[in-house]
Amino acid sequence: MYPILGYQSSHPIILPNPMSKRGDRRKHLLDLFRQIRAEAGLRQVDLAKKLRRPQSFVSKYESGERRLDLLELQQVCTALHISVTEFVKRFEGEEP
Fold first, then answer.
1. Looking at beta carbons, which pairs linking 48-55 to residues 24 or more positions away fall under 8 Å?
2. Which one of 1, 5, 76, 91 is separated from 53 by 20 to 30 angstroms, measured CA to CA?
3. Which pTM value belongs to this model?
4. What phi, psi does 7 have (nearest 5°)?
5. 3-state secondary structure string across the chain
6. pLDDT in tens, 2-57
7. Rounded to 5 degrees, what are φ and ψ at 74?
């Protein structure tokens, strides 16, 4: 029963979970980071060297433990020979 609305229903109301969609997009982003690095033929350690960062830096943003700001994303994209614009196009165009 929904006392506030004043009626009973035998059918539960199931609303879409916005967190689920956000989780899907986050997984898609993390997968895209790994995919673009693999396409460039680089291991995490190779990319880390290009970025002058420890391998853990790459591991943490690829696993979602760390988020990149725009300047860091630009550095990663430059090291992978892809523009930020192309990265975003791929993110938007390959939605799950």
1. 50/79, 51/75, 51/76, 51/79
2. 91
3. 0.73
4. -145, 165
5. CECCCCECCCCCCCCCCHHHHHHHHHHHHHHHHHHHHHHCCCCHHHHHHHHCCCHHHHHHHHHCCCCCCHHHHHHHHHHCCCCHHHHHHHHHHCCC
6. 456 565 656 556 555 554 566 789 999 999 999 999 999 999 999 999 999 999 99
7. -60, -40
Which residues are registered as beta bridge partners of 2? 7
Please name each of the domains of the chain with its CATH number: 20-93 (1.10.260.40)
pLDDT tens for each residue of 82-95: 999 999 999 998 65
pLDDT at 23: 78
